[in-house]
Amino acid sequence: MILEDFLVKTDEGYYCRYGKFFIDAATPVACNLISHAHGDHATNGHQDMYATAATFAFMRNKFGKMHEESMKTVSFSQPFMLHDVEITFFAAGHMLGSAQILMVYKSVRYLYTGDYKLQADVTCEPLQLVQADVLITESTFANPAVQHPDDKLEILKLKDKASNIMLGCYTLGKAQRLTALINEYLPEREVLVHHKMYPVHRLYDELGPTRLKYALYNRKAMKEGPANKVYLVPPLTFNSYFKAKNVLKAFASGWERLQRQNDIELYISDHVDWNDLLYFIAEVAPKEVWTIHGDGRMLRQHFSGKLLVRDILKQTS
Questions:
Q1: What is the pLDDT along the chain (317 residues), one digit of tens a residue?
Q2: Residue 106 falls in which region: left (phi positive, over 0), alpha (psi -120 to 50) or beta
Q3: Where in the sequence is the domain holding 119, given as residue range(s)?
Q4: What is d(CA 49, CA 43) in angstroms, rounded to the nearest whole number?
Q5: Domains of the chain: total
């Protein structure tokens, strides 16, 4: 029997009282499962925390000193128990080390996706398809109007531009994927990375499946030689250079609002779009879908009368 309150949303994070653990808790808790290393999912200070080796590596890079005795490294496809709940991490394809979390309690399978994508990405583990009774899915782009274009066609928008390019992107995951895409499809372009991205690129080289070609940004390199540079910068730096001259500006994202006032539109997202979400639901074959991280109303309308789709329940006091 599916338990409606198996996983509920609380102020701290998503809580499973049957296993006495949180998932992606925002504040320190006794036991926390971490789906991936992005800041809105990975926090420090928990008594016990479970994550993949890559996720912990990125967290060490961000937080510096961490209590190693609290860090329980989890391998993909290797189940473990927390009280009466069996837990297994499966690759989510969102970024290196990102995980879906399968929870089995009294033979009912609950799958928490975290953030995930189906598009190929040579810098991280591909998404693993797992069947479950309840799918607890992000719904960032759960809208029929959102269909992500092919990332190869998008990155080729940077080709044959007679200018250096300032490319805004997120430091962890997106910057490394873009570097790999440029390396593969625009080998004539030299990738320069912001100093905050450089140590993350180094970790991807150490832990990931692909070696990246890039160099640490320096002003002289941008000014001298051929205009074949792509300078990857984080969002705050990108926004501070709104008056930058002699470069073309682009920001890699699935969000239309982040494409405005740029010289090049670059729709490259690390989340599932509408079609991928429908495909994923069909493959997981759940009896129920619980939505998180977005708006699930259009998904409910689409499956009305066919499949129960609802927002995850909020904990009541």
A1: 999 999 999 999 999 999 999 999 999 999 999 999 999 999 999 999 999 999 999 999 999 988 899 999 999 999 999 999 999 999 999 999 999 999 999 999 999 999 999 999 999 999 999 999 999 999 999 999 999 999 999 999 999 998 999 999 999 999 999 999 999 999 999 999 999 999 999 999 999 999 999 999 988 878 888 999 999 999 998 888 766 778 999 999 999 999 988 999 999 999 999 999 999 999 999 999 999 999 999 999 999 999 999 999 998 75
A2: left
A3: 8-144+271-311
A4: 10
A5: 2
For the chain, the distance separating the N- and C-terminal CA atoms, rounded to the nearest angstrom, is 24
195: amino acid identity, one letter: H
Are 18 and 105 contained in the same domain? yes
In terms of domains, do 99 and 166 share one?
no
Instruction: Give the residues across from 191 on adjacent strands.
Output: 230
Does residue 116 lie within any of the structural domains?
A: yes
27 and 60 assigned to the same domain: yes
- Note the pTM of the prediction, 2 decimals: 0.96
CATH of the domain at 159: 3.40.50.12650
Q: Are residues 198 and 230 in the same domain?
A: yes
Contacts made by residues 274-280, CB under 8 angstroms, sequence distance 24+: 274/141, 274/142, 274/143, 274/144, 274/145, 274/146, 274/147, 275/147, 276/117, 276/118, 276/119, 276/148, 277/137, 277/139, 277/141, 277/142, 278/302, 279/118, 280/116, 280/118, 280/129, 280/137
Which CATH number covers residue 138? Answer: 3.60.15.10
2 domain residue, yes or no: no
CA distance linking residue 73 with residue 92, whole number of Å: 17
Task: Identify whether 317 is part of a domain.
Answer: no
